Amino acid sequence: LQGLEREGGRKNFWLMKDRATERDRERERERERERERERERERERERERYRYIYIYIERERERERERERERERERERERERERERGRERERERERERERERERERERENKRKREK
């Protein structure tokens, strides 16, 4: 009887040891799963940080493109003003030539009248 108890005790010991080992392994697996979840959360935070950086960079690029478009529009307006000044100078020269022709006609008429 004592031998059986001892034998049963040993069986019980190994059974309990197996259960304890299994619980340890399960706790270790759970810790590993938690570490993996934490690593995934960290990767997600990292992606989020980069996403905001990319958004910021893209907004800056868009603002720079808009500034460049505005500079180009201003250059075009300046070219148009220059063309208009050129046309105005040409009109002024044409008026001056017309006045000169008018004076010439008047001088011609005066000479004809004097004859």
Give your account of this protein's structure.
The structure is a single chain. By secondary structure, the protein is mainly α. It has 1 helix and no strands. It has one helix at 2-114. The longest helix is centred in the middle third of the chain and has 113 residues, at 2-114. The model has no long low-confidence stretch (mean pLDDT 89).
Average pLDDT: 89
Strand proportion, as a percent range, falls in under 5%
| Major sheet | none
Q: How far is it from the N-terminal to the C-terminal residue, by CA?
A: 168 Å
Output the helix-strand order.
H
Number of strands: 0
What's the alpha carbon Rg, rounded to whole Å? 49 Å
Provide the low-confidence segments as ranges: none
Q: Estimate percent helicity.
A: over 70%
| Shape call | rod-shaped
| Oligomer state of the chains in this structure | single chain
Broad structural category? mainly alpha
How many H/I helices?
1
Write the layout of secondary structure elements.
Layout: H1 2-114
Features:
1 helix; rod-shaped
Write a brief caption for the model.
The chain has 115 residues and is mostly helical.
